[in-house]
Amino acid sequence: MAETDQAAEQARIFQRTRAVDTQQGIDALKRILRMTKASPGLVTLSVLATVAAVAAQLSIPVLLGRAVDATQAVANETGDQGTLWRIALALFAVSVARGLFTLLQNYSAEAVGHGLAHELRLQIYSKIQRLPFSFHDRTHSGDLITVGMLDLEGVRMFFSTGVIRTILLTLLIGIGAWLLLSTDIVLGLLALSFVPFAAWRSSVMQLTLRKTWLILQERLGVLSRVMEENLGGIRVVRAFSAADHELTKFDEASTEALHLSHQRVTVRVRDTSAMTFAFFLAMGLVLYFGGRQVAAGEITVGTLATFLTFMTILQMPVRQLGLMVNSYARASTCGARLFALLDMPLEVDEAPDAPDLKVTEGTLTLEGVGFEYQGAEGHRAISGVSFTAHKGETIGIVGPPGSGKSTLMHLIPRYYDTTEGSIRIDGQDIRDVSLSSVRHAVAVVQQDSFLFTTSIENNIVYGDPEAHDRRIRGVAESAQLHDYVLGLPQGYDTVVGERGVSLSGGQRQRLSIARTLMMEPAVMIFDDSTAAIDAGTESRIRSALRQYSAERVTLIVAHRLNSLMHADRILFLEDGRIVEEGTHDELLAKGGRYRALHDLQMRPEGDVLDEMETAR
Ligand SMILES: Nc1ncnc2c1ncn2[C@@H]1O[C@H](COP(=O)(O)OP(=O)(O)OP(=O)(O)O)[C@@H](O)[C@H]1O
C-alpha cells in the first residue's frame, strides 16, 4: 500500500460506524485472550468458579423435583419426613454454594478485565504521547478519546461477558439439555423448543441494537460538536445573528437521534416480547404433555417440576446469548481499533539505544532541508533550506502567509522529520540522538499558547518541576509577567485555564514565554508568539531576553518586522525557500521583497490606501 493510502487508512479505522475487517476482528480477540495470561491465577479461579456454579445451578431443579416427590410420598404416607429434610438441607447448601461460586466467578472475571483495562490504558496514553504530529494532523482528538474510553470498555468487558459467559452457557445449556433429554426425550425436546428461537432473536436483537447504538453515538457526537462549536464560537454566532441557523443545525441532529432512540425501543420491546411468548408457549406445552404423562403414571410430579424449574433457570441465560454474541462483536471491533492505535508506527522514531544530545557550542546547522507533509506529497512545504546559527545569534524569519515559516520551525525540535537534508546541533544529527534530549535542547513558544488548568506557577515550571522560586520569578520578570501576577489575589497560586482566571491573549503568550525560558534550551524559537503583545511590552520583553539570547540561538518568526529587525540575520522565506538573507540594513539596501514588505508596514496607512486606489 502506498504511504499516502496507508495514512488515510489509519485515520479511517477510528471512524466508529466503519466495519472492521473480519480477520482484524479475530486477531483482536486472540490478542485480548493472550493478554489475559498476565493474570493466570484469576483466570483459573474464574473458570473453576464458573464450572462449580453451573454444577450447583443444575442440581437445583433435580433436587426440587425430588422434594416434590418426597412431599407427595409424605402426604401419601409412603415416605418419611427425614428424606424431605435431607433434600431441603441439600437444596439450601447447593443454593448457598451457587451464590458463593457466582460471586467468586464475577469477582475474578471482573478483576481480569480491570487488570487488562489498566494495562491497555497505560499503553494507549503512552502511545499517544509518542505518536507523530502528522498523525494528530489527520486524526480528530475526539476519536482518540473515544478509543481510550469506549473501546477500552468493550475490550475490558470481553473476558466476563464473552469468555466466561460462553463457558457458563455452554455448560448450562449443554449439560442441562442432556439431563432433560436423557430423562424424557419428548418432554425434553418440548422444554428446549424455545431455546433456538430465543437464542436467534436475542442475537439479532443485540446485533441490531449495537448497530443502531453506534449510529446513535455518532449522531450524539455531532450534537456535542455542534454544541461545542456553538459555545466556543458564541461571540461569532451572536455577532452574525446566526442563532436561528445554529438552532436548525442542532434540531436536525437531535431529531435524527430521537428517531434512532425510538427505533431502538421498538426493536427491544418487539424481540423481548417474542422471546417471552416463545418461553411461555414451550412451558404450556410441557405442562400439557407432562400433565398427561403424570396422569398416565409415566413420570412423577417431581420429574415434571424438574422440567419446569429447569426451563425457568434456563430462560435468562438463553436470553443472554445475544449479550454474549454482542460481546464478541463489540470486543472485536473495539479491540481492532485499539490495537490499530497501539501498533501505529512512530514515524519520528528514535533508535532504541540513541544517546542524548550533547550541547557544547550550541551551534545549529540546517543543510539542504526539504519537507513534504504526509497526505500532501508532491507539494514541498520546505525546500533546500540551509543556514547555520551560532550561540548568541538571533535569526529572524519572515515571509508571506503559507511560506513555510512555522513548518520550518517545527522541523528543528523534530516534531516532523525532514524528508531531505539534515538538521544538526553541534554536529549531531537530531535523528541520531534521543527525542527527549532534542526537545529539551530546542524549545518553541507557539502561536497559540495552551495553558493547563492549574496555578500560574505550575504552568511556568511545567518543563522543570523542581525549579526554585527565584528562577520562577526571574523568568516571569523577563517575560514581563511578574508585575501582573503580583496584582492577582492569589499571585503565583492563581489557577488559570478553562476553569480558572481568564487571561488575555497577550498574558497567555507571556506565560508561555516564561514557561519556555524555564527550560533553558540551546535553541529558542518564537513562532509568531508576540503577535498578541503590544509593541511596548514586546520591546520590554526583548530587552529582558537579551541576557537569555546571549546564551543560545534564538529564532524569531514574525509578521511584524518591528519584532525581528534587531536580529543578527533575517531570512525571507517564499514557497518554502530562502529567497533573501541578510541583516535588516542589508535587506533594505537590496531593495527586494523584504524592502517591499518593510515599506508597506512602515508607511502611514493613508499612503498605502491611496496607492491601492491609484492602482485600480
Ligand atoms: N499539518 C499540515 N498538513 C499539511 N499541510 C500543511 C500542514 N500545516 C501547514 N501545511 C501547509 O504547509 C505550507 C506552509 O504552512 P506554514 O504554516 O508553515 O506557513 P507559515 O509561513 O507559517 O504561515 P503563516 O504565516 O500563515 O503562519 C502551507 O501551504 C500549508 O497549507
TrEMBL record:
Domain of life the protein comes from: Bacteria
SMART domains xrefs: AAA (SM00382)
Residue ranges occupied by any ABC transporter domain in the UniProt entry: 364-600
GO molecular function: ABC-type oligopeptide transporter activity; ATP binding; ATP hydrolysis activity
Cellular localisation: Cell membrane
Keyword terms of this UniProt record: ATP-binding, Cell membrane, Membrane, Nucleotide-binding, Transmembrane, Transmembrane helix, Transport
SUPFAM superfamilies according to UniProt: ABC transporter transmembrane region, P-loop containing nucleoside triphosphate hydrolases
Domain ABC transmembrane type-1: 45-330
GO cellular component terms given for this protein: plasma membrane
Membrane topology: Multi-pass membrane protein
Transmembrane segments: 41-64, 84-104, 158-179, 185-204, 272-289
Protein name listed in UniProt: ATP-binding cassette subfamily B protein
Upper taxonomic lineage: Bacteria, Pseudomonadati, Pseudomonadota, Alphaproteobacteria, Rhodobacterales
